[in-house]
Each structure stands twice: as structure tokens, then as C-alpha cells.
Amino acid sequence: MSEFNLINELENRDLISHISNKDNLNKLIQKHSISLYCGFDPTEESLHIGHLLPLITLKRFQIAGHKPIVLIGGATSLIGDPSFKEKERVFHSNYTVNIWTEKIRKQISYFLDFNGLENSALILNNKSWFNKINILSFLRDIGKYFSINTMINRSAVKQRIQRSDQGISFTEFSYNLLQAYDFFILHKQYQVQLQIGGSDQWGNISSGLNLIHRKSKQEVYGLTVPLLIQSNGIKFGKTELGTVWLDADKTSPYKFYQFWMNIEDSNVYYFLKIFTFVDILEINDREQKKHINNNIINDKSFLAKNITRFVHGEKQLLAVERITEFLFFKNIIDIQESDLKQLQQDGIPSINIDKIKDLQEALVLSSLARSRTQAQNMIISNSISINTKRINENRIFNEYDKLFGKFTLLSRGKKNHCLLCW
């Protein structure tokens, strides 16, 4: 192994929320390549940006020479983790979970290296062992190592028990045993020595540490990354308009990019530390110079580009840059039909157009104007443009207004847009 100290790197990037026996773990990974894992339950058809930190942390370990294992919870997703949940999850069928599992498996394969080298990443599904389990054997051989007193006092359980409107079912209560058993099986069959996860998983991870120690007399380790909560108390990645997904079909790369462009200025350098692989010295230098020529805006763009490239790749980042040039800098030359389809998906408001009389009617239908009179005043005042070109009179749309025969960008001023889809 190299002299690079990964634990120090994670600490310098504020990426460690909890860690068990840090000194021993540090010595272990300095001398040996280890296997580690992180679990993802397929409770939706895509991961979202709340999953990025553990994924990136797995990537950091792999770059340092360790073997990452992704455990997809095809079985545990049928139960539902009560951590950070105010009420029980909606249960989904085996059929649905299997479809989501395959989609997430393909999604995760993009983020880690599966090239067949010694520390090549591996994806497993815990259904492979839970489908074979005998309930009586499980309760006798595993359940006896769990104290009800301890389980009740875990924050995920306690906050639900103390609520009069939402209790906790035995189904959810048992989740802690199942995740601990995952760690036990992975340690036994794949020599996994470390589990990572969000900080809300510390109770479940601790149970796995304890189970392995009591059954196998072996020391294994746990590490959690921060669970990011927004100022409104909602988990990071949830917005008023919904979740920011990693799947381009659910959240377009352009909208994904804009999410990062719209974060609070106070988070820019912290997010550069935890979400990117940019050298920490460069990040600190950027932060020191943030007030020079309003550099923080450029650094926010630097952050957005880095994360968009990591999640969606260079090709989609170039598409995002073309769209940005089109909308904000009136550069229409390089725009592509696929870029406009991104805008139609979720980038800006859009409306389907069949037949409209004229520009005034389009402004009203697109909600850029409240009435034809207001629309006419906007046109006269030279604040309306079609495909970035200023229009100073009401007129009927023609075929030249339809980009690729399908789209027209209607704008009021610099920031208010609507895509007309013919």
C-alpha cells in the first residue's frame, strides 16, 4: 500500500461523522488492501444525490487500493429501514423491487471501476442469502445476540415509539437485525472488514460490529459520512419540486447542473471538499480568494461542472454548457435537438402548441404575460425575444421560428423563458 493516509484525507474533507476504533482501522488500511461495503435499498427506480456521498467515499477507497462492494438490498427493501423516517414506507411488490434493483445495479456500475483488477468493484444482492434463510434458525442463531433494551433506545426506533400518531411495526423493528446479518455474511464469505454509510446508519452498523465480534471474535469497522440536511430540515437532494435523481431520464443533466448552481454560497467550498476529487489545497486556495472579482460564482460553476461530469459524463456536461450558452448568453449556433429535449423534460417551463394565432397569444398561454394587452406592452418595450432574437411587433409564428421543426424558445427579459413545443 502507498503512504497516502486515507483516513486523514477523509477527516480533512470533513467526511467522517462516526468511525469505530480509528487508530486500528487506519493501521489496517495503511498496510493492507481491504474489502469494504455500502448498502443501497432499491426503494425507487433510481438513486438520488443523497446517495452520492457514500458512493464517492467507496470510490475514494477504491482509488486508494481497496475493494468496494455494493450491496443492493433486494431483500431489506421489502422491509424498510425506519432510520430518519417519520412513518412506515409504502411496501412494494417483489416484481417492482426486482426491476428497480436491475436499474440501480446498472446505475452504480458507472461510478466504480469493474475492470477485473484485484480491487475491482463487486455488486451483490442480499436476496441471495435471505431467500435461503430459515426463520427459526435466524431467531435462534442471530436474534439471541440482540438486546431489545438496546434496540428500543436507538434514535430511529425511539423517535417513532414516542410519537402518538406513528408507532413502529415489528417489520421495521427487525430491520436492524437484517442489516447486521448482511455485514456478518459479507465478512464471512467476502472478508469484508469495513461498512460505510450515512450517519443515520450508525446504529445499524454498530449492530453489525457487535454481531461479528460476538459470533466470530473478529474486529471489523464502521464509518459513516455526514447526513446532509437542508435549512428547511429536509434531507439533501429533496426540493420543493421533488427529488434530484441521478438518472438522466428522471432529472435531466441540465436541471442537475442547475441544482448545484443554486446552492447557498456558504456551502460551495464544503461541497467541493466532500463531493469532488479536487485537491484540498486548491479548494482552500479558492476559498481564500472567493471575494476577489466575485470568484464564488465561478467556483460554484466549477463545483457544478465537476459533479455533473462525475455523474453524467463529459458528453452530457458539454450539452449542459451548450444549453447554458443558449439561455443566458444567446448563443444559438451550437444548440442541438437533444439539448432542447432536456429543456422540455424539466429544464424550463414548456407548453405543447398546436395552433396559436400570434405572439401575444403565445405569451399569455406560456404565462409570460397575464393578458394580451400586457403582452403587447412587453413586445413594444422590446423585452420579448424568439430564439434569442428581440421582437418589437406582434406577429404570427413561421417555420423559421421552429428549431429542428419542433421547438421555439420564447423569452421575457434575460431570466424568464418558456419552450414552445410544436
Q: Short summary of the structure?
A:
The chain has 422 residues and is of the alpha/beta class.
Radius of gyration: 26 Å
CATH topology of the largest domain: Rossmann fold
The proportion of strand residues reads 5-15%
Spatial sequence of strands, sheet with the most strands: 1-6-5-2-3-4
Which structural class matches the secondary elements?
alpha/beta
- Helical run tally: 19
Q: Count every beta strand, where a strand is a DSSP E run of 2 or more residues.
A: 13
CATH C-level of the largest domain: Alpha Beta
Walk me through what this model shows.
The longest helix is centred in the C-terminal third of the chain and has 18 residues, at 295-312. Helix 12 (253-261) packs antiparallel against helix 15 (295-312), helix 13 packs parallel to helix 15 and helix 15 (295-312) crosses helix 16 (314-329). This protein is of the alpha/beta class. It has helices at 6-12, 22-31, 52-63, 94-108, 127-130, 135-141, 148-152, 155-161, 170-173, 175-190, 202-216, 253-261, 268-275, 280-288, 295-312, 314-329, 337-347, 359-365, 372-380; strands spanning 18-19, 35-40, 67-72, 122-125, 192-198, 221-225, 238-239, 242-243, 350-352, 384-386, 389-391, 407-412, 416-421. It has three domains: 6-237, Rossmann fold (3-Layer(aba) Sandwich), CATH 3.40.50.620; 248-334, Tyrosyl-Transfer RNA Synthetase (Orthogonal Bundle), CATH 1.10.240.10; 348-422, Roll (Structural Genomics Hypothetical 15.5 Kd Protein In mrcA-pckA Intergenic Region, Chain A), CATH 3.10.290. Strand 7 and strand 8 (242-243) form a beta hairpin. A six-stranded mixed sheet has the order 1-6-5-2-3-4, with helices on both faces. 35% of the residues are buried. It is elongated and about 80 Å long. The N and C termini lie far apart (59 Å).
